[in-house]
């Protein structure tokens, strides 16, 4: 489902060159559940943006759903995202002038699906927000906005869900509910999950945990994960 090889990303600033990702390799099979951990600033969000085609690598290749992103036009990348990927952004990216329900319905409407409003409401119900369907993002709490963003990422039943700290703003009970929702999709539809998380419980539910450090990924076992968590 995901194949990254020799991926590098540098940012050129006025007086310095920052290397965020360096010779990074990642392979994720269809239906696999992978957690990515790493300290703040280690490049987790950058990695997700590159593998969803929202940013370009400085070097290396990106293949998602059997398609190479190299050489694709922005429209082709948008098309690939719309058809195959659900993305939960760290900063939500909800559209402020649309209600919760309209935000969730958007991917369906863009895809030309009928019944989008009804499906959007059903998905909001799954994240526990049917009572907030007509609220605008500014009228929602941070955790509620996060759940709208999750509903929007899941509503078109993508094969791959890429989520940046999906439980980061949620209390334990609500976080558990979202975790259940993600893993139910994996079990029932074979949805591949790539989750950036600081949540030990979420990582422990995955098939493997990869730690991002010095620009590349290394698999860590649960004991090492517990040490990372307790020191962060
Ligand atoms: N557009 C940019 N220009 C310059 N530097 C950038 C840019 N985007 C990200 N960086 C740098 O790349 C590094 C990695 O950022 P990134 O957002 O990927 O980290 P992260 O692991 O997601 O951190 P966090 O856990 O805090 O979300 C940071 O040091 C950041 O300053
Ligand atoms: Mg980040």
Characterize the structure shown.
With 232 residues, this protein is an alpha/beta fold. The chain has a single domain (2-231), classed as Rossmann fold (3-Layer(aba) Sandwich). It has helices at residues 44-51, 74-84, 100-110, 116-126, 142-154, 172-189, 200-204, 222-231; strands at residues 2-12, 17-28, 33-37, 59-64, 67-68, 85-88, 160-164, 192-196, 208-213, 216-220. A hairpin with a 2-residue loop joins strand 4 (59-64) and strand 5. The two termini are 30 Å apart. The site of adenosine-5'-triphosphate has 12 residues, from strand 2 and helix 1. Residues 11, 18, 20, 38, 40-46, 90 line the site of adenosine-5'-triphosphate.
CA distance, first residue to last residue: 30 Å
Instruction: Quote the CATH topology.
Output: Rossmann fold
Helix % is 25-40%
Extract low-pLDDT stretches: none
CATH class assignment: Alpha Beta
Strand ordering within the main sheet: 6-7-8-3-9-10
Structure in a nutshell:
Helices cover 38% and strands 26% of the residues. The chain has 232 residues and is α/β, with parallel strands linked by helices.
Topology (SSEs and partners):
Layout: E1 2-12, E2 17-28, E3 33-37, H1 44-51, E4 59-64, E5 67-68, H2 74-84, E6 85-88, H3 100-110, H4 116-126, H5 142-154, E7 160-164, H6 172-189, E8 192-196, H7 200-204, E9 208-213, E10 216-220, H8 222-231
Parallel strand pairs: 3-8, 3-9, 6-7, 7-8
Antiparallel strand pairs: 1-2, 1-4, 4-5, 9-10
Helix pairs in contact: 3-4, 3-5, 4-5
The structure holds adenosine-5'-triphosphate and magnesium ion.
């Amino acid at each position: 489902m995901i194949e990254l090889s020799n991926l590098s990303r540098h940012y050129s600033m006025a007086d310095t060159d920052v290397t965020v990702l360096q010779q990074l390799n990642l392979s994720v099979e269809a239906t696999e559940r992978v957690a990515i951990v790493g300290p703040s600033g280690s490049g987790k969000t950058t990695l997700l943006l590159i593998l969803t085609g929202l940013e370009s690598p400085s070097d290396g290749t990106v293949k998602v759903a059997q398609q190479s992103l190299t050489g694709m036009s922005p429209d082709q990348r948008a098309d690939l995202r719309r058809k195959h990927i659900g993305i939960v952004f760290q900063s939500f990216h909800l559209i402020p002038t649309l209600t919760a329900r309209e935000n969730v319905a958007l991917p369906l409407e863009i895809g030309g699906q009928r019944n989008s409003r009804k499906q959007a409401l059903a998905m909001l119900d799954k994240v526990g927000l049917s009572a907030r369907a007509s609220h605008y993002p500014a009228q929602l709490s941070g955790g509620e906005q996060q759940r709208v963003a999750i509903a929007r990422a899941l509503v078109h039943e993508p094969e791959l869900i890429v989520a940046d700290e999906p439980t980061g703003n949620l209390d334990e009970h609500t976080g558990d509910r979202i975790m259940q929702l993600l893993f139910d999709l994996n079990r029932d539809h074979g949805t591949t999950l790539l989750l950036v998380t600081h949540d030990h419980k979420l990582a422990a539910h995955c098939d493997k945990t990869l730690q991002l450090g010095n620009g590349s990924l290394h698999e860590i076992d649960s004991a090492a994960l517990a040490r990372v968590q307790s020191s962060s």
